[in-house]
Design goal:
- Chains A, B: GO terms for molecular function: FMN binding; pyridoxamine phosphate oxidase activity.
- Chains A, B: This is pyridoxal 5'-phosphate synthase.
- Chains A, B: Its cofactor is FMN.
- The structure is a homodimer of 205-residue chains.
- Chain A has one domain: Roll (Pnp Oxidase, Chain A).
- Chain A has five helices and nine strands, in the order H-H-E-E-E-E-E-E-H-H-H-E-E-E.
- In chain A, strand 7 and strand 8 form a beta hairpin.
- With 205 residues, chain A is of the alpha+beta class.
- At the A-B interface, strand 1, strand 2, strand 5, strand 6 and strand 9 of A face strand 1, strand 2, strand 5, strand 6 and strand 9 of B.
């Protein structure tokens, strides 16, 4: 199964249709946009936490996640940062394990287009969500509960330093449907001309 | 906050009461016993998948997970195998991130007590669950769908080679309640006499 060339791959990735169907079919559940993000943390040990799906980047299949730059979610080895999402849809019993290279976009990015994506993601978040980036650093001991509540934000102000956009470019999607016990593995194949195709293989669950 | 000494720690771990309350409060949801298991896979990259909570080991706080020995879920570095669970309760909006050292128990274990635990876990599983360990190796290409269905099992037969019991001994539990925005981190402290205590700290979410 091929997903088209460079221009075509963005909208025709074969796994994207399955994921969109799962999103639509589970849309009545608030948690259907939550998934678990695994990274390799300090000392080479695995780390895992629930994050919110912030949509695909326009005109492509890249997955967006907002994160607090201070919470150290991303793992890198030799300047390549890789993670794996595990996204389980509780109503349709479907699981998507999506892995790929991540682009970490904070305010120091030199790319104007990336900074624009980050700003867009900031304003797309609710004011309540944005407030968390103004609070104390995640994970530090709480000495005064009141301190957390004493944060105010101008709704028209742009992203603060702690706000970080993660953009995952999927390279492999492992799809499992527990209702019919079917499993499909989609792998992106990079071609010599720089374009890419998706290969799909049915494997045992 | 201390959780008692060696004898007492098993039943008085302070996070265990929170987890039991979440399990009870979300028991009406089939998926409340599912969590995501992060490991470090080949090449040092993170891997993540949904697994089923198979209960605590008797008289202690160790968490049991059944797995297929052929699917290579466990990461080890210098003979120490560590993983992190991310367990999100969709109704109560509570997250438990539990990390610790894992004991991988397959049929080759030399410890009779461990083999007994494994056998117990096998018979506690439904016959349908057990059947998956007799099927083709997970992840290998499917050439003949019929092959998967042509598997039979004697319900009184003991665990097959592929059946593996993972036992996680928690060392750190990071609890987050999204309804009241409270976060508590529980850390196990090993004492000089071999016993252990739990330390709890309130941290910013």
């Amino acid at each position: 199964m091929a997903g088209g060339g460079a221009a075509g791959s963005a909208l025709s990735s074969p796994w994207r249709a399955l994921l969109q169907r799962a999103l639509d079919g589970n849309a009545h559940l608030r948690h259907s946009t939550y998934f678990q993000l695994a990274t390799v943390g300090a000392g080479g040990w695995p780390a895992n936490r629930t994050v919110v799906f912030r949509g695909f980047q326009e005109h492509c299949d890249k997955i967006q996640i907002n994160t607090d730059a201070r919470s150290n979610k991303v793992c890198c080895q030799r300047n390549v940062c890789v993670l794996q999402i595990c996204w389980y849809f509780t109503d349709s019993w479907e699981q998507f394990r999506i892995s790929g290279i991540i682009d970490v976009i904070d305010g120091s990015s030199a790319d104007p287009a990336k900074l624009q994506h980050r700003e867009k993601a900031w304003f797309k978040s609710s004011v309540k969500s944005r407030l968390q980036y103004l609070g104390p650093q995640p994970g530090v001991p709480v000495v005064d509960d009141q301190q957390i509540n004493d944060v105010h934000l101008d709704a028209s102000a742009g992203p603060v330093d702690a706000f970080c956009l993660l953009v995952l470019d999927p390279e492999k999607v492992d799809y499992l449907n527990l209702k019919n016990n079917q499993r499909l593995v989609f792998t992106r194949i990079q071609k010599e001309d720089g374009s890419s195709d998706w290969m799909a293989e049915k494997v045992s669950p």
